[in-house]
Amino acid sequence: MTLSFDHVLKSARHPDDPRRTLDILDLPQMIADRYGVHHVELQHYHFASTESSYLREMRDRLRKAKSHMNHICLEFGALNISSPDPVLRIETVDLTKQWIGHAAAVGCPRVMLNAGTLAPEVRQAAVASLKEIAAYGKERKVFVTVENRGHGPTPPKPSWEVVVEVVNAAGIYANPDTGNFQDEASRTAGLRAMYPLSC
């Protein structure tokens, strides 16, 4: 996960930070050489550009490292499919579709959305948005996933049971996060339910 290298990746947000010495384009080769890992998961905000030429360069660097990008995590802040504001949900759908296109361009088969709260009062609208996103992804051979995001009321996070319900209702896939369960009993039950729904 590029998230693990966030503090050393060069960033337009932190141009003068001397600790940031690693270009994202060099990351696949570094991970392959240093860790022997050939699967790379990127945060969307780590891409320095979404221009076609940059995406081609990213794809070429992955191939050179004999690696591939297996997931792009989409973290759009206030934009998520659980927003009670329909305009924000539409913006989320539109932005997610753009990133599905970017994923297809670099040969990445999956994107993961931050599903927000999936609270009961917005759940049906969230499912409808996910269905639209999933249909768009299917046309481009890109799977859409959501994950369990922990537990607790602050901020409200959906339980694994809600994630499973939404995944089944929307026709998307689960991305089981083994570290985000309340306790061992919920981890055992949650992973048993989520693994068959993953891709």
Give structural notes:
By secondary structure, the protein is α/β, with parallel strands linked by helices. It folds into 2 domains: 1-69, no CATH class; 75-199, TIM Barrel (Alpha-Beta Barrel). It contains 6 helices and 5 strands; from the N terminus they run H-E-H-E-H-E-H-E-H-E-H. A 5-stranded parallel β-sheet has the order 1-2-3-4-5, covered by helices on one side. Helix 3 runs parallel beside helix 4 (123-139). It starts with 26 loop residues before the first helix and ends in a 5-residue tail after the last helix. The mean pLDDT is 93.
Give the key terms.
2 domains; 199 residues; 6 helices; alpha/beta; TIM Barrel
Radius of gyration: 17 Å
What is the mean pLDDT?
93
Class from helix and strand fractions: alpha/beta
CATH topology (level 3) name of the largest domain:
TIM Barrel
Strand order of the largest sheet: 1-2-3-4-5
Give the count of helical stretches: 6
**Uncertain spans:** none
Strand and helix order:
HEHEHEHEHEH
- What is the overall shape? globular
> Structurally, how many domains make up the residues?
2
Strand percent estimate: 5-15%
The CATH architecture of the largest domain can be given as Alpha-Beta Barrel
Helix content: 40-55%
User: What does the largest sheet look like?
Assistant: 5 strands, parallel
Distance N to C terminus: 17 Å
The CATH class designation of the largest domain is Alpha Beta
The number of E-state strands comes to 5
The CATH superfamily name of the largest domain is: Divalent-metal-dependent TIM barrel enzymes
